[in-house]
Sequence to fold (406 residues):
Amino acid sequence: MGKVIDYFHHPQMGERIFFAGYILFLWRSVWVTTMFPLSGLMTMVCVPLAALFLGLKILLYDHYPVRQFLLLASTLLCVCLVFLSSGSINPFFWLLLVAASRDVKFEKIVKVYLAVNIAVIFLAFCAASFDVIENLQYKTGKRGIRNSFGIIYPTDFGAHIFFLFLAYYYLKGEALRWYHYAITIAAAGLVYYFCNARLDSGCTLMLAVLYGVGNGIMHSRAVSMRVKMKWELLWRKVGVWAMVLFAVFSVLMTLFYQKDSRAWQELDKIVSSRLRLGNNGIEEYGWTLFGQAIEMVGNGGSTTLPSDYSFIDCSYMYMLLRHGIGFLVLMLAIFTICCYKNRHDQYFLYAMALISVNCVIAHHIIQVEYNPFALALLAQCVREPEGAWSLGHLRWKRQAFHRLNL
Fold:
Protein backbone atom coordinates (compact mmCIF):
# COMPACT_ATOMS: atom_id res chain seq x y z
CA MET A 1 0.00 0.00 0.00
CA GLY A 2 2.85 2.33 0.86
CA LYS A 3 4.44 1.76 -2.55
CA VAL A 4 1.17 2.68 -4.27
CA ILE A 5 0.94 5.90 -2.25
CA ASP A 6 4.58 6.72 -3.01
CA TYR A 7 3.92 6.08 -6.71
CA PHE A 8 1.11 8.62 -6.78
CA HIS A 9 3.31 11.11 -4.92
CA HIS A 10 6.07 10.83 -7.52
CA PRO A 11 7.06 14.34 -8.71
CA GLN A 12 6.27 13.46 -12.34
CA MET A 13 3.04 11.58 -11.67
CA GLY A 14 0.73 14.53 -12.27
CA GLU A 15 2.38 15.20 -15.61
CA ARG A 16 2.08 11.53 -16.60
CA ILE A 17 -1.63 11.48 -15.77
CA PHE A 18 -2.12 14.65 -17.82
CA PHE A 19 -0.39 13.17 -20.85
CA ALA A 20 -2.41 9.95 -20.54
CA GLY A 21 -5.59 12.00 -20.90
CA TYR A 22 -4.15 14.41 -23.45
CA ILE A 23 -2.88 11.69 -25.79
CA LEU A 24 -6.17 9.78 -25.66
CA PHE A 25 -8.22 12.88 -26.40
CA LEU A 26 -5.81 14.20 -29.04
CA TRP A 27 -5.54 10.85 -30.85
CA ARG A 28 -9.31 10.52 -31.07
CA SER A 29 -9.72 14.17 -32.17
CA VAL A 30 -7.17 13.86 -34.98
CA TRP A 31 -8.63 10.50 -36.02
CA VAL A 32 -12.05 12.13 -36.47
CA THR A 33 -10.57 14.45 -39.12
CA THR A 34 -9.51 11.46 -41.26
CA MET A 35 -11.51 9.14 -43.48
CA PHE A 36 -10.80 6.19 -41.19
CA PRO A 37 -14.02 4.77 -39.72
CA LEU A 38 -14.72 5.91 -36.18
CA SER A 39 -16.13 3.17 -34.02
CA GLY A 40 -18.45 3.96 -31.16
CA LEU A 41 -16.11 1.95 -28.95
CA MET A 42 -13.24 4.36 -29.61
CA THR A 43 -15.37 7.30 -28.52
CA MET A 44 -16.75 5.43 -25.50
CA VAL A 45 -13.23 4.51 -24.38
CA CYS A 46 -11.12 7.54 -25.33
CA VAL A 47 -13.34 10.43 -24.28
CA PRO A 48 -14.42 9.26 -20.78
CA LEU A 49 -10.93 7.95 -19.99
CA ALA A 50 -9.36 11.20 -21.14
CA ALA A 51 -11.79 13.19 -19.00
CA LEU A 52 -11.04 10.90 -16.02
CA PHE A 53 -7.27 11.32 -16.30
CA LEU A 54 -7.50 15.09 -16.78
CA GLY A 55 -9.94 15.39 -13.89
CA LEU A 56 -7.64 13.36 -11.63
CA LYS A 57 -4.71 15.59 -12.56
CA ILE A 58 -6.71 18.65 -11.52
CA LEU A 59 -8.13 17.20 -8.30
CA LEU A 60 -5.00 15.46 -7.01
CA TYR A 61 -2.10 17.61 -8.19
CA ASP A 62 -3.21 21.13 -9.09
CA HIS A 63 -3.48 24.14 -6.82
CA TYR A 64 -4.54 27.42 -8.42
CA PRO A 65 -3.82 30.97 -7.23
CA VAL A 66 -6.91 33.12 -6.68
CA ARG A 67 -6.77 34.88 -10.06
CA GLN A 68 -6.35 31.65 -12.01
CA PHE A 69 -9.09 29.98 -9.99
CA LEU A 70 -11.52 32.84 -10.63
CA LEU A 71 -10.75 32.84 -14.36
CA LEU A 72 -11.19 29.07 -14.64
CA ALA A 73 -14.32 29.05 -12.45
CA SER A 74 -15.90 31.83 -14.53
CA THR A 75 -15.08 29.98 -17.75
CA LEU A 76 -16.41 26.70 -16.32
CA LEU A 77 -19.69 28.36 -15.39
CA CYS A 78 -19.85 29.85 -18.87
CA VAL A 79 -19.20 26.55 -20.67
CA CYS A 80 -21.86 24.83 -18.54
CA LEU A 81 -24.36 27.50 -19.57
CA VAL A 82 -23.19 27.15 -23.17
CA PHE A 83 -23.86 23.41 -22.99
CA LEU A 84 -27.37 24.03 -21.61
CA SER A 85 -28.11 26.66 -24.27
CA SER A 86 -26.50 25.12 -27.33
CA GLY A 87 -25.81 21.47 -26.51
CA SER A 88 -22.15 21.92 -27.46
CA ILE A 89 -19.67 20.00 -25.26
CA ASN A 90 -16.52 21.12 -27.13
CA PRO A 91 -15.83 24.21 -24.96
CA PHE A 92 -15.91 22.01 -21.83
CA PHE A 93 -13.20 19.62 -23.09
CA TRP A 94 -11.14 22.57 -24.31
CA LEU A 95 -11.31 24.14 -20.85
CA LEU A 96 -10.58 20.79 -19.18
CA LEU A 97 -7.34 20.47 -21.15
CA VAL A 98 -6.37 24.07 -20.41
CA ALA A 99 -7.00 23.64 -16.66
CA ALA A 100 -5.22 20.27 -16.43
CA SER A 101 -2.08 21.54 -18.16
CA ARG A 102 -1.01 23.55 -15.11
CA ASP A 103 2.74 23.22 -14.40
CA VAL A 104 3.22 20.83 -17.33
CA LYS A 105 6.06 21.81 -19.64
CA PHE A 106 4.50 23.41 -22.71
CA GLU A 107 7.44 22.20 -24.77
CA LYS A 108 6.40 18.59 -24.00
CA ILE A 109 2.77 19.38 -24.85
CA VAL A 110 3.75 20.69 -28.27
CA LYS A 111 6.10 17.74 -28.92
CA VAL A 112 3.33 15.26 -28.05
CA TYR A 113 0.97 17.24 -30.28
CA LEU A 114 3.43 16.94 -33.15
CA ALA A 115 4.04 13.22 -32.59
CA VAL A 116 0.34 12.27 -32.45
CA ASN A 117 -0.67 14.47 -35.38
CA ILE A 118 2.18 13.37 -37.62
CA ALA A 119 1.51 9.70 -36.85
CA VAL A 120 -2.21 9.84 -37.64
CA ILE A 121 -1.93 12.14 -40.67
CA PHE A 122 0.93 10.14 -42.16
CA LEU A 123 -1.07 6.94 -41.63
CA ALA A 124 -4.09 8.51 -43.33
CA PHE A 125 -1.95 9.77 -46.22
CA CYS A 126 -0.45 6.31 -46.80
CA ALA A 127 -3.83 4.61 -46.46
CA ALA A 128 -5.35 6.98 -49.01
CA SER A 129 -2.41 6.42 -51.39
CA PHE A 130 -3.02 2.63 -51.30
CA ASP A 131 -6.83 2.99 -51.53
CA VAL A 132 -7.37 1.65 -48.03
CA ILE A 133 -9.45 4.74 -47.34
CA GLU A 134 -10.80 7.22 -49.86
CA ASN A 135 -8.79 10.15 -51.11
CA LEU A 136 -11.65 12.58 -51.58
CA GLN A 137 -11.16 14.57 -54.77
CA TYR A 138 -13.26 17.62 -55.51
CA LYS A 139 -13.46 18.80 -59.11
CA THR A 140 -13.93 22.54 -59.37
CA GLY A 141 -13.92 24.81 -62.40
CA LYS A 142 -11.05 27.25 -62.14
CA ARG A 143 -9.48 25.65 -59.05
CA GLY A 144 -8.85 22.23 -60.61
CA ILE A 145 -8.90 18.97 -58.65
CA ARG A 146 -8.61 19.35 -54.88
CA ASN A 147 -7.21 16.36 -52.98
CA SER A 148 -7.82 15.63 -49.31
CA PHE A 149 -5.22 12.80 -48.95
CA GLY A 150 -7.20 10.76 -46.43
CA ILE A 151 -8.49 13.78 -44.49
CA ILE A 152 -12.19 14.71 -44.59
CA TYR A 153 -11.67 17.81 -46.76
CA PRO A 154 -8.77 19.48 -48.63
CA THR A 155 -8.81 22.56 -46.39
CA ASP A 156 -8.64 20.34 -43.30
CA PHE A 157 -5.54 18.67 -44.73
CA GLY A 158 -4.07 22.11 -45.43
CA ALA A 159 -4.92 23.22 -41.87
CA HIS A 160 -3.10 20.21 -40.42
CA ILE A 161 -0.01 21.05 -42.47
CA PHE A 162 -0.05 24.71 -41.42
CA PHE A 163 -0.45 23.99 -37.71
CA LEU A 164 2.20 21.25 -37.77
CA PHE A 165 4.74 23.60 -39.31
CA LEU A 166 3.68 26.33 -36.89
CA ALA A 167 4.24 24.10 -33.84
CA TYR A 168 7.61 22.95 -35.20
CA TYR A 169 8.73 26.51 -35.94
CA TYR A 170 7.71 27.61 -32.47
CA LEU A 171 9.87 24.93 -30.85
CA LYS A 172 12.88 25.55 -33.11
CA GLY A 173 12.83 29.33 -32.71
CA GLU A 174 16.25 30.84 -33.30
CA ALA A 175 17.58 27.43 -34.39
CA LEU A 176 15.67 27.70 -37.68
CA ARG A 177 17.90 27.61 -40.76
CA TRP A 178 17.50 28.40 -44.43
CA TYR A 179 16.54 24.83 -45.33
CA HIS A 180 13.64 24.93 -42.85
CA TYR A 181 12.27 27.95 -44.69
CA ALA A 182 12.88 26.32 -48.08
CA ILE A 183 11.02 23.14 -47.06
CA THR A 184 8.14 25.20 -45.66
CA ILE A 185 7.80 27.29 -48.82
CA ALA A 186 7.85 24.10 -50.90
CA ALA A 187 5.18 22.56 -48.64
CA ALA A 188 3.01 25.66 -49.05
CA GLY A 189 3.34 25.34 -52.82
CA LEU A 190 2.43 21.64 -52.77
CA VAL A 191 -0.62 22.26 -50.57
CA TYR A 192 -1.76 24.97 -52.95
CA TYR A 193 -1.15 22.82 -56.05
CA PHE A 194 -2.71 19.56 -54.87
CA CYS A 195 -5.35 20.82 -52.40
CA ASN A 196 -5.91 24.39 -53.55
CA ALA A 197 -6.24 25.30 -49.88
CA ARG A 198 -5.49 28.97 -50.39
CA LEU A 199 -5.78 30.08 -46.78
CA ASP A 200 -3.52 27.40 -45.32
CA SER A 201 -0.93 27.52 -48.09
CA GLY A 202 -0.86 31.31 -47.69
CA CYS A 203 -0.53 31.06 -43.90
CA THR A 204 2.23 28.46 -44.25
CA LEU A 205 4.08 30.84 -46.56
CA MET A 206 3.51 33.71 -44.11
CA LEU A 207 4.90 31.48 -41.38
CA ALA A 208 8.21 31.07 -43.19
CA VAL A 209 8.38 34.79 -43.98
CA LEU A 210 7.51 36.02 -40.48
CA TYR A 211 9.87 33.71 -38.60
CA GLY A 212 12.57 34.30 -41.22
CA VAL A 213 12.27 38.08 -41.03
CA GLY A 214 12.04 37.96 -37.23
CA ASN A 215 15.18 35.87 -36.91
CA GLY A 216 16.91 37.99 -39.53
CA ILE A 217 16.20 41.17 -37.59
CA MET A 218 17.00 39.84 -34.13
CA HIS A 219 20.10 37.79 -34.95
CA SER A 220 21.76 39.64 -37.81
CA ARG A 221 24.81 41.79 -37.14
CA ALA A 222 23.82 43.99 -40.08
CA VAL A 223 20.67 45.19 -38.28
CA SER A 224 21.12 48.02 -35.79
CA MET A 225 20.25 47.60 -32.12
CA ARG A 226 17.67 50.36 -32.48
CA VAL A 227 15.77 48.37 -35.12
CA LYS A 228 16.03 45.19 -33.06
CA MET A 229 14.58 46.90 -30.00
CA LYS A 230 11.75 48.55 -31.93
CA TRP A 231 10.85 45.21 -33.48
CA GLU A 232 10.83 43.57 -30.04
CA LEU A 233 8.74 46.35 -28.52
CA LEU A 234 6.25 46.21 -31.40
CA TRP A 235 5.55 42.56 -30.68
CA ARG A 236 5.44 43.05 -26.93
CA LYS A 237 2.89 45.84 -27.26
CA VAL A 238 0.83 44.88 -30.32
CA GLY A 239 1.41 41.13 -30.62
CA VAL A 240 -0.27 40.47 -27.28
CA TRP A 241 -3.52 41.92 -28.64
CA ALA A 242 -3.42 40.36 -32.11
CA MET A 243 -6.29 37.94 -31.57
CA VAL A 244 -8.56 40.56 -30.01
CA LEU A 245 -7.86 42.92 -32.91
CA PHE A 246 -8.64 40.31 -35.56
CA ALA A 247 -11.75 39.16 -33.67
CA VAL A 248 -13.13 42.71 -33.48
CA PHE A 249 -12.21 43.26 -37.14
CA SER A 250 -14.02 40.06 -38.22
CA VAL A 251 -17.18 40.81 -36.25
CA LEU A 252 -17.37 44.43 -37.44
CA MET A 253 -16.78 43.49 -41.08
CA THR A 254 -19.53 40.87 -40.86
CA LEU A 255 -21.93 43.34 -39.22
CA PHE A 256 -21.31 46.04 -41.81
CA TYR A 257 -21.50 43.67 -44.79
CA GLN A 258 -24.02 44.81 -47.41
CA LYS A 259 -25.38 42.18 -49.76
CA ASP A 260 -26.37 44.71 -52.43
CA SER A 261 -22.99 46.42 -52.57
CA ARG A 262 -20.71 45.44 -55.45
CA ALA A 263 -17.61 46.35 -53.43
CA TRP A 264 -18.69 44.18 -50.48
CA GLN A 265 -19.47 41.30 -52.84
CA GLU A 266 -15.99 41.45 -54.34
CA LEU A 267 -14.44 41.52 -50.87
CA ASP A 268 -16.62 38.58 -49.86
CA LYS A 269 -15.29 36.56 -52.80
CA ILE A 270 -11.74 37.06 -51.54
CA VAL A 271 -12.65 35.54 -48.16
CA SER A 272 -14.73 32.72 -49.72
CA SER A 273 -18.18 34.02 -48.67
CA ARG A 274 -17.28 34.28 -44.96
CA LEU A 275 -18.87 37.72 -44.69
CA ARG A 276 -22.12 36.69 -46.34
CA LEU A 277 -22.48 33.47 -44.35
CA GLY A 278 -21.71 35.23 -41.07
CA ASN A 279 -24.14 38.03 -41.88
CA ASN A 280 -26.83 35.48 -42.76
CA GLY A 281 -26.21 33.79 -39.43
CA ILE A 282 -26.69 37.05 -37.54
CA GLU A 283 -29.92 37.79 -39.42
CA GLU A 284 -31.32 34.30 -38.91
CA TYR A 285 -30.23 33.53 -35.37
CA GLY A 286 -28.99 36.76 -33.79
CA TRP A 287 -26.55 36.38 -30.92
CA THR A 288 -27.04 35.36 -27.35
CA LEU A 289 -25.01 35.46 -24.15
CA PHE A 290 -24.38 31.71 -23.93
CA GLY A 291 -24.92 30.41 -27.46
CA GLN A 292 -27.62 28.46 -29.22
CA ALA A 293 -28.16 25.31 -31.24
CA ILE A 294 -27.39 26.10 -34.87
CA GLU A 295 -27.41 23.54 -37.66
CA MET A 296 -24.14 23.93 -39.54
CA VAL A 297 -24.25 22.38 -43.01
CA GLY A 298 -20.73 22.11 -44.39
CA ASN A 299 -18.50 20.17 -46.73
CA GLY A 300 -16.33 17.23 -45.79
CA GLY A 301 -16.47 13.45 -45.63
CA SER A 302 -18.08 13.15 -49.03
CA THR A 303 -17.54 14.44 -52.55
CA THR A 304 -21.23 15.34 -52.77
CA LEU A 305 -21.35 19.00 -51.87
CA PRO A 306 -24.52 20.20 -50.11
CA SER A 307 -26.68 22.71 -51.96
CA ASP A 308 -27.66 24.45 -48.71
CA TYR A 309 -24.13 25.11 -47.40
CA SER A 310 -24.41 27.26 -44.27
CA PHE A 311 -21.27 26.55 -42.24
CA ILE A 312 -19.83 29.63 -40.51
CA ASP A 313 -16.11 29.09 -40.96
CA CYS A 314 -14.80 32.28 -39.33
CA SER A 315 -13.76 31.18 -35.82
CA TYR A 316 -14.78 34.44 -34.18
CA MET A 317 -18.25 34.51 -35.74
CA TYR A 318 -18.66 30.78 -35.07
CA MET A 319 -17.85 31.29 -31.38
CA LEU A 320 -20.14 34.33 -31.19
CA LEU A 321 -23.19 32.68 -32.77
CA ARG A 322 -22.75 29.09 -31.60
CA HIS A 323 -21.26 29.59 -28.12
CA GLY A 324 -22.33 33.13 -27.29
CA ILE A 325 -20.87 36.49 -26.35
CA GLY A 326 -19.77 35.30 -22.90
CA PHE A 327 -17.66 32.44 -24.18
CA LEU A 328 -16.15 34.52 -26.98
CA VAL A 329 -15.01 37.16 -24.48
CA LEU A 330 -13.56 34.57 -22.06
CA MET A 331 -11.86 32.67 -24.88
CA LEU A 332 -10.22 35.87 -26.15
CA ALA A 333 -9.20 36.69 -22.58
CA ILE A 334 -7.50 33.30 -22.21
CA PHE A 335 -5.56 33.64 -25.46
CA THR A 336 -4.61 37.23 -24.60
CA ILE A 337 -3.36 36.17 -21.16
CA CYS A 338 -1.33 33.42 -22.86
CA CYS A 339 0.29 36.09 -25.03
CA TYR A 340 0.90 38.42 -22.09
CA LYS A 341 2.45 35.60 -20.08
CA ASN A 342 4.76 34.81 -23.03
CA ARG A 343 5.30 38.41 -24.14
CA HIS A 344 9.04 37.89 -23.72
CA ASP A 345 8.86 35.07 -26.31
CA GLN A 346 8.60 36.54 -29.80
CA TYR A 347 8.18 33.07 -31.31
CA PHE A 348 5.01 32.54 -29.28
CA LEU A 349 3.67 35.94 -30.35
CA TYR A 350 4.47 35.16 -34.00
CA ALA A 351 2.52 31.91 -33.69
CA MET A 352 -0.50 33.57 -32.08
CA ALA A 353 -0.56 36.32 -34.71
CA LEU A 354 -0.60 33.72 -37.50
CA ILE A 355 -3.35 31.75 -35.75
CA SER A 356 -5.35 34.96 -35.36
CA VAL A 357 -5.13 35.59 -39.11
CA ASN A 358 -5.96 31.97 -39.97
CA CYS A 359 -9.04 32.03 -37.73
CA VAL A 360 -10.56 34.93 -39.65
CA ILE A 361 -11.33 32.33 -42.34
CA ALA A 362 -11.09 28.94 -40.57
CA HIS A 363 -12.99 27.58 -37.55
CA HIS A 364 -10.21 25.69 -35.73
CA ILE A 365 -9.57 28.11 -32.87
CA ILE A 366 -10.51 25.78 -29.96
CA GLN A 367 -9.93 22.47 -31.75
CA VAL A 368 -6.87 21.06 -29.98
CA GLU A 369 -6.16 18.68 -32.87
CA TYR A 370 -5.17 21.84 -34.76
CA ASN A 371 -4.42 24.56 -32.21
CA PRO A 372 -2.70 23.55 -28.93
CA PHE A 373 -1.56 27.06 -27.96
CA ALA A 374 -4.32 27.79 -25.41
CA LEU A 375 -2.66 25.17 -23.18
CA ALA A 376 0.15 27.67 -22.66
CA LEU A 377 -2.11 29.53 -20.21
CA LEU A 378 -1.05 27.48 -17.17
CA ALA A 379 1.77 25.35 -18.58
CA GLN A 380 5.45 26.15 -18.02
CA CYS A 381 6.89 28.53 -20.59
CA VAL A 382 9.14 27.12 -23.29
CA ARG A 383 11.42 30.14 -23.01
CA GLU A 384 11.89 31.89 -19.68
CA PRO A 385 12.05 35.71 -19.76
CA GLU A 386 15.59 36.90 -20.34
CA GLY A 387 16.79 33.50 -19.17
CA ALA A 388 20.02 33.38 -21.13
CA TRP A 389 21.01 37.02 -20.75
CA SER A 390 23.55 38.41 -18.36
CA LEU A 391 22.67 41.01 -15.72
CA GLY A 392 24.89 43.54 -17.43
CA HIS A 393 23.18 42.99 -20.76
CA LEU A 394 19.78 43.44 -19.16
CA ARG A 395 20.88 46.69 -17.49
CA TRP A 396 22.28 47.96 -20.78
CA LYS A 397 19.10 47.02 -22.56
CA ARG A 398 16.91 48.90 -20.07
CA GLN A 399 19.10 51.96 -20.48
CA ALA A 400 18.87 51.70 -24.27
CA PHE A 401 15.07 51.49 -24.10
CA HIS A 402 15.08 54.62 -21.95
CA ARG A 403 17.31 56.53 -24.36
CA LEU A 404 15.07 55.61 -27.27
CA ASN A 405 12.00 56.78 -25.34
CA LEU A 406 10.42 53.40 -25.88
User: Anything to note?
Assistant: The longest strand covers residues 137-140. Confidence is low (pLDDT under 50) at residues 387-396. Strands lie at 137-140, 144-147. The radius of gyration is 22 Å.
